[in-house]
């Protein structure tokens, strides 16, 4: 008989991450909560930030976070590692973050846009 693996927790995603990665996540969470109510949902391979629906996904690595944001268009920017079309009117933007300072005004704008999309404001 096999036993099921324990359900992931937000904390379990950071067991191999540096302090800078943890601080970056806190900065990202603070920026998200400044937009309105946000719930953290730990998944097997990532953490979703959710209001009515998920607007951001965060995969943790040892020295970076890989942030995936919803968008209504591709964003051409050196910070966007990948822009992938998810449906006719939705894109997923992948951004790598290593320090809290990278949760800057530009990133907060993209985060706000993703939050609004998840709430159906766009």
Name the average pLDDT: 93
Q: What string gives the helices and strands in order? A: HEEEEEEH
Query: Could you give the order of strands across the largest sheet?
Result: 1-2-3-4-6-5
Alpha-carbon Rg, integer: 14 Å
Task: Show unreliable segments.
Answer: none
> Helical region count?
2
Total beta strands:
6
Q: What are the SSEs and their pairings?
A:
Elements: H1 19-33, E1 39-42, E2 47-50, E3 54-60, E4 65-71, E5 80-87, E6 90-97, H2 105-118
Antiparallel strand pairs: 1-2, 2-3, 3-4, 4-6, 5-6
Question: Would you kindly provide a written description of the structure presented here, covering whatever features stand out?
Answer:
- This protein is an alpha+beta fold.
- It has two helices and six strands, in the order H-E-E-E-E-E-E-H.
- Strand 2 (47-50) and strand 3 (54-60) form a beta hairpin.
């Amino acid at each position: 008989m096999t036993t099921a693996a324990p359900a992931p927790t937000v904390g379990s995603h950071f067991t191999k991450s540096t302090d800078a990665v943890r601080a970056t996540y806190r900065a990202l969470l603070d920026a998200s909560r400044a937009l309105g109510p946000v719930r953290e949902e730990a998944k097997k391979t990532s953490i979703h930030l959710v209001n009515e629906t998920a607007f951001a996904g965060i995969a943790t690595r040892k020295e970076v976070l890989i942030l995936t944001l919803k968008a209504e268009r591709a964003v051409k920017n050196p910070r966007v590692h990948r822009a992938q079309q998810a449906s006719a009117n939705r894109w997923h933007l992948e951004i790598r973050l290593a320090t809290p300072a990278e949760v800057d005004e530009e990133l907060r704008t993209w985060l706000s846009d993703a939050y609004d999309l998840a709430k159906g404001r766009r």
